[in-house]
Protein 1
Amino acid sequence: MAFLEVKNVSFQYTPSAPLVLDDLSFSLEKGTVLGVLGKSGAGKSTLALALAGLIPKAIPGVFRGSIVLGDKDLKDLGPGETAGIIGLVLQNPFNQITGIASDVYSEIAFGPQNLGWPEAKIRSKTDEIIEKLGISHLADRNPLGLSGGEQQRVAIASIMVMEPELLILDEPTSQLDPAGSETIFSLIAQLKAQGTSIILIEHKVEQIAEIADHVIVLAKGKKVLSGDPVSVLGEPIITEYGVKRLFYSELTELLKAKGHLKPEETITDFASCIRVLKEVAQSA
């Protein structure tokens, strides 16, 4: 039985509005990462809100289908239950900052406090996540006075500190520089290794291909492509849905056309890319 099962989910914000999610079905195994891709307006952020249990409870609209987590339908879970097992990092970090805490440390500790954790555990986990995300220097700063990238890290930390069983990340690196993005992807890999189930909405296809076990591509709320990350992200048709194609796939085709690769050979990672390019250079 899948850890998360999305069955024939459709959603529209008003009865007369277009469908934002359209008969969407997929599943997620426990401890795996599902990558969700698609251009702006494809329904990715609405899907994230539905998976977090905010649609249709906190955000009204016409919802059909079911989202089952473990053996429970999300519609049957109360806010307290949902917060204890599902974590959502929003695309815009400003929308996630509480505005209550006067410093970053208190902001990150706010969630665990609401869950009733013992004080010692709150301090231990808050210290741990601050260190992992490299934001110790921000601990005494006011969250509202931070830059967008700094707020992004704080928002991510405030969710990850609660150790949710299902972590939903809506473009978590959108406001981060390459070094900050690498930190987040490294942390995602650690969480996956620890058994956290993750829904990752991202545009960085190379990173998705490395970390995801499965990907789906959305277009106008529909699932149009689904499968192994390298295979799906290497398909030429993927660009029609506003998703960048994997560089390695394009390079493989180019080198085959030039006779530098055999028909059965493929380049799927950085190491094989360097090896093949060195061979091409040596034979030139």
Protein 2
Amino acid sequence: MNKINVKCVASQGAVIPSYKTEGAAGADVCALIESPVTIQPGKFAMIPTGLFFEIPTGYEIQVRPRSGLAAKNGVTVLNTPGTIDSDYRGELKVILINLGDKDFTINSGDRIAQIIVSPVTVADFTLTDSLSDTQRGEKGFGSTGV
């Protein structure tokens, strides 16, 4: 288990991330807002959480949608998966978008996203004039069928 230090604005009602079941990969994060925020269909909003993380070097936190919000309301994380880098110390804010057909209201304390702690592989990008051949080659979108 990886230790992640979390600074939480608990005095204002921030909730530390939590896993809801023993086998859950994602820990739920909750909104921390002064008043309800309504997102109209097709619009998005940045929702604060009151959470600040100290992520160990070599790891990231990925911010992902909650499947229930997406399935029931069409609400998802706009930049999914969002990445929190190990050197970021600012507040986690979640960009939610309403892809549904009705207004969606968020209240303080609502579970709005989930976070996954994931290892990061740092690449050594090397400039070259040629790449090895493969069967697929340069064939792009849809090249392997629908």
Protein 3
Amino acid sequence: MTRTLSDTDRTRHRRLREQGSFDRDDLDAILAAGFLCHVGVIVDGTVMVVPTVYGSDGTTLYFHGSVASRSLTSSPNSTVCVTITHIDGLVLSRSVFEHGVNYRSAMIFGTPRLVEDPDETLAGLRCLTEQSAPGQWEYARRPNRKELAATALLALSLDEASVKIRTGPPDDGDGPDAALGLWAGVLPLQTTWGALQPDPALPADIAAPAHIASRSGAPSA
């Protein structure tokens, strides 16, 4: 059975409706494919868009930062828009007007809450860590009380979200511009991890753990 996203005034697709999706699985796939989001919030009458890492447990989006961050300390009382975007390629048409981008994007709306429960705080930080580096939560030292006190963790429900996806070739292959004799198509974009760069202070006999080395192709411990 297909799970659907909510259809609200903020999530309704008004432009390029053919690229819109109300399939909840599409939202989950977009969230799972990344770990960086942009949080849009109004602080003292000024719009701020802040990049930060996130983690999703399927029902809640967690994001965090310093307790000194004005955008984060204000957002528990404000509606925010969290955006995640993945670029898959440039769509190069025969005319500049028809150029575009193949992409997957999600916008999540709501009022986040400040996580104060110690157990949920650790679970949320684990979610953040595992989103970007699976296996790192069990490998690295976990935050102590002082570090937790300096961290603001916010939780945002995934109940209200908008998804758009574009795939495929240019749209002008059957139009008048097809007769121009110009090349058209898609220039794919792929993101890959590079070679590991050990900390200069790291002793030479400490190898990268398997969960990190396997993503870069480097030898592991």
